[in-house]
């Protein structure tokens, strides 16, 4: 029982830190609200879907930044899609960087776009690592409870 | 625009309204949005089908499917939301069609509304946005 409480506390602490440090916003809570006994891993499934699907968008953006001349219209479209997907899982820092990217895009600022895109990829990767750790903890908590 | 009784029909296979459950079609090219909205609407007691673009939505209706409610994304490949909405209205579809978009410019939303929407929301859908629609639909069925 002590071990269960300990793991549960670790889950709660990690979850709180993801919000306090600005990695996640309220949309993540909306996903959690949709998780139930019929869909016990809904949040993890949606996050996995996000990372699988957005890899394609990141590739598209990378290619669009590489092309000369840069098609800022297409770039903005790709980033709009990526921002939408990121928003839907509550990826707050990623979303903020996407918004900045679009400001540079609209201004036709290629350097600004490139720099911000590096930042986006960093935040995207960082969130992925944190959420992987979080879901592993959640899984451990579930196993500890059923032991 | 009220939901006419003729939209509340179905053969069971195309998942139009069965019993008193509201049938919904979620049209969005983003698989994450389709997953989230499907879960939200099922949790609200609706029967949900999905389509990945406007053309699929139109094809479903051409094949005889009908829904009480259609959630239509604005920007999609193949056929976008405004075009799909216009085509559905031209086909005589009187279902409630609600636009869902991540664009928040008034001009974009107005142009989408002009295609024949009943309402237009900014993504993502929330239960607070869905409840008034359920109330309106159940009041008319």
Portion in helices of chain B: 25-40%
CATH architecture of one domain in chain A: Up-down Bundle
N-to-C CA distance of chain A: 9 Å
Mean pLDDT of chain B: 86
Oligomeric description of these chains: heterodimer
Write down the Rg of chain A. 18 Å
What is the assigned CATH homologous superfamily of one domain in chain A?
HPT domain
Query: What is the topology, as strand order, of the major beta sheet of chain B?
Result: 2-1-3-4-5
Topology as H/E string of chain B? EHEHEHEHEH
Taken as a percent bin, the fraction of beta residues of chain B is 15-25%
Mean pLDDT of chain A: 94
User: How many strands appear in the DSSP assignment of chain B?
Assistant: 5
Class of one domain in chain A in CATH?
Answer: Mainly Alpha
Structural category of chain B: alpha/beta
Please, could you describe this protein's structure?
- Chain A: One of its GO terms (cellular component) is cytosol.
- Chain A: InterPro entries: AHP1-5/YPD1, HPT_dom_sf, Sig_transdc_His_kin_Hpt_dom.
- Chain A: One of its GO terms (molecular function) is protein histidine kinase binding.
- Chain A is an all-alpha fold.
- Chain A has a domain at 26-32 and 41-134: Up-down Bundle (Four Helix Bundle (Hemerythrin (Met), subunit A)).
- Helix content of chain A is 82%, strand content 0%.
- Chain A has helices spanning 2-20, 26-33, 42-66, 72-88, 92-106, 110-146.
- Chain A is elongated, with a radius of gyration of 18 Å.
- The relative contact order of chain A is 0.15.
- The mean pLDDT of chain A is 94.
- Chain B has 141 residues and is an alpha/beta fold.
- Chain B has a single domain, classed as 3-Layer(aba) Sandwich (Rossmann fold).
- Chain B has helices spanning 31-43, 54-62, 81-90, 106-114, 127-140, and strands at 23-27, 47-51, 69-73, 96-101, 119-122.
- Chain B has a five-stranded parallel β-sheet with strand order 2-1-3-4-5, with helices on both faces.
- In chain B, α2 (54-62) runs parallel beside α3 (81-90).
- The longest helix of chain B is centred in the last third of the chain and has 14 residues, at 127-140.
- Chain B is globular.
- Mean pLDDT of chain B is 86; it is low at 1-18.
- At the A-B interface, α2, α3 and α4 of A face α1 of B.
């Amino acid at each position: 029982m002590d071990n269960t409480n300990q793991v549960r506390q670790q889950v709660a602490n990690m979850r709180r830190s993801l919000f306090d440090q600005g990695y996640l916003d309220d949309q993540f809570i909306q996903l959690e609200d949709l998780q139930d006994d019929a869909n016990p891993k809904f949040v993890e499934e949606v996050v996995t879907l996000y990372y699988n699907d957005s890899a394609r968008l990141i590739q598209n953006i990378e290619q669009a930044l590489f092309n000369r001349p840069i098609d800022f219209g297409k770039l903005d479209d790709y980033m709009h899609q990526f921002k939408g997907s990121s928003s839907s899982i509550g990826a707050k820092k990623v979303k903020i960087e996407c918004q900045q990217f679009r400001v540079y895009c609209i201004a036709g600022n290629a350097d600004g776009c490139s720099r911000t895109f590096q930042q986006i990829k960093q935040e995207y990767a960082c969130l992925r690592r944190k959420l992987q750790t979080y879901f592993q903890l959640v899984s451990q908590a579930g196993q500890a409870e059923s032991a | 625009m009220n939901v006419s009784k003729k939209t509340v029909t179905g053969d069971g296979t195309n998942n139009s309204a069965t019993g008193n459950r509201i049938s919904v079609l979620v049209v969005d090219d983003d698989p994450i949005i389709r997953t989230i909205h499907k879960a939200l609407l099922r949790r609200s007691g609706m029967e949900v089908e999905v389509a990945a673009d406007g053309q699929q939505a139109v094809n479903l209706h051409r094949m005889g499917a009908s829904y009480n409610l259609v959630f239509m994304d604005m920007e999609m490949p193949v056929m976008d939301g405004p075009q799909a909405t216009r085509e559905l209205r031209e086909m005589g579809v009187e279902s409630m069609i609600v636009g869902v978009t991540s664009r928040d410019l008034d001009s974009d939303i107005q142009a989408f509304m002009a295609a024949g929407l009943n309402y237009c929301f900014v993504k993502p859908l929330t239960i607070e946005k869905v409840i008034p629609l359920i109330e309106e639909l159940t009041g008319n069925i």
